[in-house]
Automatic annotation (TrEMBL):
A motif ('KMSKS' region) lies at residues 556-560. It comes from Hyphomonas beringensis. GO terms for molecular function: aminoacyl-tRNA deacylase activity; ATP binding; valine-tRNA ligase activity. A motif ('HIGH' region) lies at residues 43-53. Residues 15-596 form the Aminoacyl-tRNA synthetase class Ia domain. This is Valine--tRNA ligase. GO terms for cellular component: cytosol. It is found in: Cytoplasm. Residues 845-909 form the Valyl-tRNA synthetase tRNA-binding arm domain. Catalyzes the attachment of valine to tRNA(Val). As ValRS can inadvertently accommodate and process structurally similar amino acids such as threonine, to avoid such errors, it has a 'posttransfer' editing activity that hydrolyzes mischarged Thr-tRNA(Val) in a tRNA-dependent manner. Monomer.
Length: 912
RNA sequence: GGGCGGUUAGCUCAGUGGUAGAGCACUACGUUGACAUCGUAGGGGUCACAAGUUCGAACCUUGUACCGCCCA
């Protein structure tokens, strides 16, 4: 006997272990079967499972289990990402906590050893968490973007080197000195995508720059309403800045060429306070006459826009910051004329000191409070500085072209489609991708320099040496590559590239990639570029973009907001199946998901419902027949449920094929709860309890069969409870026939029996109608009342007799009889063509019955009138499709017939 | 400023040309040995607004308002 309910905490780990041990997560290796592969978006090795992962991996597992059951040769390739900055940060923090030396004093090799050790001990905790979700990845192939430490010749390492060298040789990777986003905390460059633009409260300091050479000009003066009332003579020009300290590196002041106020000043100079440098006033479109004073200070070395302006004006950028964002010292400070007391100051201290100096010199015109956009490092949370450095760049613009083309020509499509616009938008405006990082944890750049600064990019030091010539002393580039550089190669490196492996042959390109939209740029676009470049083929034909998981209020979940829900807590509370089903049911395309516990609880209840259906089957000896000969099934209720099952299977299959996950789960939910449990199991109770052995045998077989087929259909959504029931319904079955997860997907051979469906629908309508009437009229729930069919056709009479037991049981009837005229004191029930009478006069107030009838008659009148009006419209009849017109005609016929019956019933009440 | 999306029942959301749907919440009643993590019945909607296309619009077009998100 099955327990009262499913116990996920006990069953889930046991089942997962059994699956994994049996090897059924591995590809079948059936070379005659179609190959189907997905590479997991590699979670960060420092990461812990959050709701986004739960959704992302549930959907992947759903497809993987589905396709596996469909007989494909399936690979779900798992692994993790080495996450340069994040991991280095974790380990550095740990070193600090433990009171160890910092990484600089311990040295590069020792530090990298330490990171590896950390990864082996506590890295990749997320893998275990994915297992709790039921993810059926082939863990024997688990990959890591840094490769295998113990195998210096591992393919991940070789792949990254090869890609770097080849792109360099093609001119698609180059070294350049330009402004980068510099993270002063980690002291590394980061890419545009790793910078968060945040709106924060800040100030605009309006600074007066004295004009050099005694120049003055007339500046318009405005009254409070903004009208120009006159001019004043000024010997200064006002610039506004949110970063006053950068004035130390100013090389000029720009005004708009058409700004009349400043026209006479173009070509003149200002004398920068503090540093005493003469810098020119130049004309440049970048200056916005509407903004602030219309004049803008130009600091080419510390602002991306200013860099461009400075380049146009031929200014040499003056660097004033060092790698920790303090003011420079030494030669650079000399060049910029920075006074001694500013040198070495932190950027924010320098800011205060600059402002004080302006104030003291009466050059501070105004401090304006406003919100400013400020760039923050997404890992470090410190303000990012644009900084001039030498870095390696990928020519993303060139590489993007084939990747754009692939989507334009449909080699790869986005689902939902509208994300392709986001993709194009970014790809069309793509900037050079800075791939070097001043970190120690990562793939070290395969570039060597000789003493003259010549660079040699090669597979190995020996090769570089050979290229440089004997005797040259070479030093390897200190930097490592951006983590996304290696994850861009993920779809083929995980399969063994650059080696020619059978996996690569079989499983590349993958079938689909499943991810959230915020990863389109980071990862998807880059995989497209690299896949096309090195494999000559797109890495996947489909890109499915799912929603973000938000909290109940629609806010992004984050630790700092404290609104994060832990998926594992939900798994503990409700089981992995419930969480998975919730994710699936809510994964409507193109929407965000607002998660609530209630919803998860609801789907836990759903799995309990299924469990109890199986319990019912067990009590009634509905076994596991395995096969079913549909043609041999006789009884209408059984033929009906087989029809419904067939419809459900088709809907689920189509939903999964089309990435309409919510439609697939919806079809299952409705079938299991509203069709199977609410009706089928109720309808067969009399048969199972009855005397007719043939009926009983058939019903047991069909019930057992339908349940097993349902388990198969539900398995990809709720793998645990279904797998458990598969075995519990037929002990020993997993051992003899294999796990449920390895069974064949219901073939979806369509089966429909319209006659059986019509008959059962009639029974259901009868019961529903009677129940509704009883409830509305307040008939005591426990009472049994007689029902009389009035003037029924013989077909209806036979139906009623065939289903007498069920009608009596579910509608709480005392008996069913037939007459030609409606009995006295009965209330009419109209279903289709059939009028029957429920003898409930003793219980009810005739006035209530009358009201109920009048209400329905009123509604019918309205419906009939409006539809008749439609049908009398010449245009409708001639232009609408025939089937729609016919549908409306039929509707009117049905309604009219019902109205007649109800009117008769209404008349019958008048004498009472 | 550019782009994308949203506005449907109290709440969260499906529905994309042919009679407005689900889950939750709510109300009433609970009986039938699968299930109270349940059953039965019920109430609840000018589908943001306006104009247009169409025989017909929640759905297509245009515009307006409000709300999100991404990019600069």
């Amino acid at each position: 006997m099955l327990d009262q309910r499913f116990d996920p905490a006990e069953a889930e780990p046991r089942l997962y272990e059994a699956w994994e041990k049996s090897g059924c997560f591995k590809p079948s290796g059936d070379t005659s079967a179609q190959a189907y592969s997905i590479v997991i978006p590699p979670p960060n090795v420092t990461g812990v499972l959050h709701m986004g992962h739960a959704l992302n991996n549930t959907l992947q597992d759903l497809l993987i289990r589905f396709e596996r059951m469909r007989g494909k040769n399936v690979l779900w390739q798992p692994g993790t990402d080495h996450a340069g900055i994040a991991t280095q940060m974790v380990v550095e923090r740990k070193l600090a906590e433990e009171g160890n030396q910092d990484r600089r004093s311990m040295g590069r090799d020792a530090f990298v050893d330490r990171v590896w050790a950390w990864r082996e001990e506590s890295g990749g905790a997320i893998v275990g968490q994915l297992k709790r979700l039921g993810a059926s990845c082939d863990w024997s192939r688990e990959a890591f973007t840094m490769g295998d430490r113990n195998d210096p010749d591992n393919n991940m390492m070789r792949a990254v080197t090869k890609v770097f060298v080849e792109l360099y040789k093609k001119g698609l990777i180059y070294r350049d000195k330009r402004l980068v986003n510099w993270d002063p905390h980690f002291q590394t460059a980061i890419s545009d995508l790793e910078v968060d633009q945040r709106e924060v409260p800040g100030h605009y300091w309006h600074l007066r720059y004295p004009l050099a050479d005694g120049v003055t000009y007339e500046h318009p003066v405005k009254d409070e309403e903004g009208n120009v009332t006159g001019t004043e003579t000024r010997n200064y020009i006002v610039v506004a800045t949110s970063r006053p300290e950068t004035m130390l590196g100013d090389t000029g002041v720009a005004v708009h060429p058409e700004d009349e106020r400043y026209a006479g000043l173009i070509g003149k100079f200002v004398e920068l306070p503090i540093v005493g440098r003469r810098v020119p006033i130049i004309a440049d479109d970048y200056a916005d006459p509407e903004k602030g004073s219309g004049a803008v200070k130009i600091t080419p070395a510390h602002d991306f826009n200013d860099f461009e302006v400075g380049k146009r004006a031929g200014h040499t950028p003056l660097n004033i910051l060092n790698s920790v964002a303090s003011i420079v010292d030494g030669g650079e400070a000399d060049a910029a004329g920075i006074p001694a007391d500013y040198r070495g100051l932190d950027r924010f201290e320098a800011r205060n000191k600059v402002v004080e100096a302006f104030e003291a010199a009466e050059l501070l015109q105004e401090i304006e409070d406003l919100k400013i956009e400020q760039p923050f490092g997404d890992r470090s949370n410190v303000v990012i500085e644009p900084w001039m450095t030498d870095q390696w760049y990928v020519d993303a613009k060139t590489m993007a072209q084939p990747a754009i083309e692939a989507v334009k020509t449909g080699k790869t499509r986005f689902v939902p489609e509208n994300w392709e616009k986001t993709y194009y938008n970014w790809m069309d405006n793509i900037q050079p991708w800075c791939v070097s990082r001043q970190l120690w944890w990562g793939h070290r750049i395969p570039a060597w320099y000789d003493e003259d600064g010549n660079v040699y990019v090669a597979y190995s030091e020996e090769e570089a040496q050979a290229e440089a010539g004997k005797g040259k002393k070479l030093v390897r580039d200190e930097d490592v590559l951006d983590t996304w550089f290696s994850s861009a190669l993920w779809p083929f490196t995980t399969m063994g590239w650059p080696d020619k492996t059978p996996e690569l042959e079989t499983f590349y390109p993958t079938a689909t990639v499943i991810t959230a939209f915020d990863i389109i740029f980071f990862w998807v676009a880059r995989m497209m570029m690299m896949g096309l470049e090195f494999m000559g083929e797109v890495p996947f034909p489909d890109i499915y973009i799912h929603a973000l998981v938000l909290d109940e209020k629609g806010q992004k979940m984050s630790k700092s907001k404290g609104n994060a829900m832990d998926p594992l807590e939900l798994v503990d509370a409700y089981g992995a199946d419930a969480l998975r089903f919730t994710m699936t049911a809510m994964a409507a395309q193109g929407r965000n998901i607002r998660l609530s516990k209630q919803r998860v609880e609801g789907y836990r209840n759903f799995s309990t419902k299924l469990w109890n259906a199986a319990r019912f089957a067990e009590m009634n000896e509905c076994g596991a027949p395995g096969e079913m000969d549909y043609a041999a099934v006789k009884s209408p209720v059984n033929r009906w449920i087989l029809s419904e099952l067939s419809k459900c299977a088709a809907d689920v299959t189509r939903g999964l094929e089309d990435y309409r996950f919510n439609e697939a789960s919806d079809a299952l939910y409705k079938f299991i709860w509203n069709t199977l449990c609410d009706w089928y199991l109720e309808l067969i109770k009399p048969l199972l309890a009855g005397m007719d052995d043939t009926d009983k045998q058939e019903t047991r077989a069909v019930c057992g069969y339908v349940l097993d087929e349902t388990l198969k259909l539900l398995h990809p959504f709720m793998p645990f409870v279904t797998e458990e029931l598969w075995e519990r319904r037929s002990p020993g079955r997993a051992a003899s026939k294999g796990f449920l997860m390895s069974q064949s997907w219901p073939s979806g051979e369509p089966f429909t029996d319209e006659a059986a469906t019509a008959e059962i629908d009639w029974v259901i309508d009868m019961i529903t109608e009677i129940r509704s009437l009883r409830n509305d009229l307040g008939v005591p729930a426990g009472s049994r009342v007689p029902l009389t069919l009035v003037n029924a056709t013989s077909e209806i009479e036979q139906r009623a007799m065939r289903h007498e037991d069920v009608l009596k049981r579910l509608a709480r009837l005392e008996e069913i009889s037939m007459t030609e005229t409606s009995p006295e004191g009965a209330v009419s029930v109209v279903v289709g063509e059939t009028m029957s009478a429920l003898s409930i006069a003793d219980f009810v107030d005739i006035e209530e019955v009358r009201k109920r009838l009048d209400k329905e008659l009123g509604q019918l009148d309205k419906d009939i009138t409006s539809t008749e009006k439609k049908l009398s419209n010449e245009n409708f009849v001639s232009r609408a499709p025939e089937e729609i017109v016919e549908e409306n005609r039929e509707r009117v016929r049905d309604w009219t017939a019902r109205r007649e019956k109800l009117q008769a019933a209404r008349k019958g009440l008048e004498g009472l």
